[in-house]
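Need tokens for this chain, all 172 residues.
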Amino acid sequence: MKLLLKLKQVPNFARANRKISWPIYAGAPRQWRFDGRSGEFRVGSTIAGKLLEAIVLDFRWIREDRFGRETQYWLDLAFVDKDGRVSILPLKKDSSVNAFEFLSDCFEKDLFPYAFRIYLEPQPMAAEDGGIFYVLQVKGCKPIEQSEFDAILDFQKSDRFQWILAGEVDEP
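Here are the structure tokens for all 172 residues:
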């Protein structure tokens, strides 16, 4: 949910008057999702379109049951989105193979994945039942600016990032 006020309507006492650093991290990552049935990205429950622009900060493969689904492999991407917000995107294994190939390729070529802005886009695939599902494809990438790279290194060194998925609770 976005703040529906225009900034000129906000009284001075409500302003923090601090310099917001890039990337923006509010103590937990912005929650992105990818719907493999419709090929759409969402931020929370809001449809965000069919193209995701991201600078990958980190990633992990994890095998667990989540979101009410059976145990399976997930690729979790931590990234900076086009708004400069530190975000997270959990992807089921079937949807994520192409993105993981890009990341693997970076490592094989001795490149930092977080030195690139990547563009993820859904690609339709035929399902076993005759329907269609979508997988993510890296449609392009370009190097980021030196200042962005330096800011990402500073953020990574700060050790503030946490793998927090909305709706999931760690076992005590």
